[in-house]
Amino acid sequence: MKYERVLRGDLNEDLIGKIHSILEEPEWLLEYRLKGLEYFKKLRNPDWGPNLSEIDFKKIAYFASPLIVPRPVRWEELPEFIKEVYIKLGLTKEYVERYLGGAVLQFDSSPVFKKVREYLESLGVIFMPLSEAVKDYSGLIKKYFSKIVSYSDNKYAALNTAVWSGGIFIYVPKNVKVDIPLHAYFRINLENVGQFERTLIVVEENSEVTYVEGCSAPILSASPLHAAVVEAYVHKNAKVNYITLQNWSKNVYNLPTKRAFVEEGGKINWISVELGGKVSMLYPSAILKDNAVAEIYGISFAKKNQIFDTGGKLYLNGKNARGIINSIGIVMDEGSKVTHRIDVFINKGSKNSKVFSSCRSLLINGETESFPRFHVEEEDSYYNNESKTDILDEERFFYLEARGFDRSRALRMAVLGYFEDLLDKVPDIYKLEIKRVVEVDIEKYGSVG
Amino acid sequence: MFKITKLNAWIEDKRILEDINLEVRPGEIVLIAGPNGSGKTTLARAILNDPKIKKEGKIILGEKDITNLPTHEISKYIYLAFQYPPDIEFLLTKDFLKEMGISDEIYSLFDYLSLPKDILDRGLLTGFSGGERKKFEILLSLLKDYNVYIFDEPDSGLDSESISKLSKILVDLKNKGKCIIVISHISRLFIDIKPDRVYIIERGRIKKVGGYELLKDVEKYEV
């Protein structure tokens, strides 16, 4: 990696300046970083939701070498969607294993990754680290950077703007449907799992892209705070699928801000599977213009002492806009908690717009609650929310065990069945990976619980 | 042979069963009767090793001590038709049956028990009438081969046609040499078939053991 330094301590202009100069960024970015710092100091922690007062900002590593994600090197270990990319590009199992096996350091120059890169280049797609893109495509990035998630949006978006490093930039030109999913896996230097990573996706008119972040293996974190920002600009009639598998180690506060701006007729799908972390606050959001569509699907799997505060936010600013938010919680143990939080703003002029939301929890042990809120300024609109808690208690376990299911099989059947409907909204190839990731988690649970 | 010796059971430190001795030979139907709250259901659940019941004593199936096997292991040998099976709304009945490894043979049984097929698309035991619950529990007993069958109040809420079908099912199981335990206080079930032995439980103890003539006493216990 290019940088091996760690910067900690008091967050001040001096430290921001150091990050800026280490990364050799264009001048305009420093202004954003300093604005971020200003708002980070000005803004308070939210006075609702999980307790964040234990975060000790003096102990955070604000800048560090990006983390290395464990990478599968055997064909069998690869997620289905990655295998499918190789198959599509005409690479065989033997070829992939020959060039990936053990050669971790040369990943990016390996023929396998070169093939992926060449394919994307042939489409005119840019897929690279954001911190490099700000140098190569300064003008393009400046047009979108911090425009969808402002540095003043919330304390942690401000912090990210001040200290961000790592993360990716995706640009898809007009009329291009990228038919392979993009994943940091395809480039060694795209370590998108830094503490303060920043992602910017710009998809031009009539184009389409799918981005998958995270992986099924638990990711050890050097720092207990992860505050990412994801901005997606979806132009007219374009489409973005953004799929997250979050599996941070159990000490992490995960406080990302994810938002899409969706132009006329465009579509954003946010799909999140939350497995890791100690406290997670995640509300993917979308600003919708005429005929734009947002679908926000989340599965939170809360085990011992994990707290997930999650749901989605929609701002309907156009006619015939459509939104769906489905938030599912699986609440496993004492001390675990899932809070569903839905915020929908149906603004004046968004005539004939419709929003459907649901908050469902499968409660085994722990706590769950729902806060759906609708702020409606346009009468010619429709919205509906369903909140429901289903209980899998000892009596139900006993019944299933009396029918021959051991506890972990009963759990697996109940949990996988619980979000089956939601998975039907996800393309098959990711469905398999999501199921697999959750199954691994349940198995682990079954063996200790 | 299915045999229970010196079984004592507690729920949250409250003694529910005291010194229960009971046996069922292959091809026998045993009736357990007694007033509500006498411990009949606790006995059935203790046999399946319900973790919330603490117990002492032995439960032997053939040569095997199954007293402390996990419930899902015991369920390979013993089928318990629940008195009040819980509803599990989020688990579709058809998915549950599929996971149990049950095939299409089930459809004819739905007709036989006049159980509506639309329950397949409903949550497990969700929105079932009292009679449908009982029939569903009976239906599950027919889908696999067990050594011991326990029916906990299988006939309450059943119409007379269904009761005579259940009675026929019991005869079939008896003829196959199964051990059958019926917990009931209604004798309608025993018009065509007589239990081989009747145990009367009161306040957690076996009060009387005897033949069918004891049923006259059972009538007395009806609530």
TrEMBL record, chain A:
Per UniProt, residues of the SUF system FeS cluster assembly SufBD N-terminal domain are 123-182
- Residue ranges occupied by any SUF system FeS cluster assembly SufBD core domain in the UniProt entry: 186-417
What Pfam families is this protein classified in?
A: SUFBD_core, SufBD_N
Q: Which InterPro entries match?
A: Fe-S_cluster_assembly_SufBD, SUF_FeS_clus_asmbl_SufB, SUF_FeS_clus_asmbl_SufBD_core, SUF_FeS_clus_asmbl_SufBD_sf, SufBD_N
Q: Which family does it belong to?
A: Belongs to the iron-sulfur cluster assembly SufBD family.
What PANTHER family would the database entry show? FES CLUSTER ASSEMBLY PROTEIN SUF, UPF0051 PROTEIN ABCI8, CHLOROPLASTIC-RELATED
Protein known as: Fe-S cluster assembly protein SufB
Q: Lineage of this protein's species?
A: Archaea, Nanobdellota, Candidatus Nanoclepta
TrEMBL record, chain B:
Q: Which protein is depicted?
A: ABC transporter domain-containing protein
Q: Where is the signal peptide?
A: none
Q: Which Pfam families match?
A: ABC_tran
Sorted alphabetically, which InterPro entries does this protein's record hold? AAA+_ATPase, ABC_transporter-like_ATP-bd, ABC_transporter-like_CS, ABC_Transporter_VariousFunc, P-loop_NTPase
Cite a single GO MF annotation: ATP hydrolysis activity
> What SUPFAM superfamilies has UniProt attached to this entry?
P-loop containing nucleoside triphosphate hydrolases
Q: Name the domain of life this protein comes from.
A: Archaea
Q: Which residues form a coiled coil?
A: none
Q: What are the residue boundaries of the ABC transporter domain, all occurrences included?
A: 2-223
| Species this chain originates from | Candidatus Nanoclepta minutus
For this UniProt record, give its keywords in alphabetical order, as a comma-separated list.
ATP-binding, Nucleotide-binding, Transport
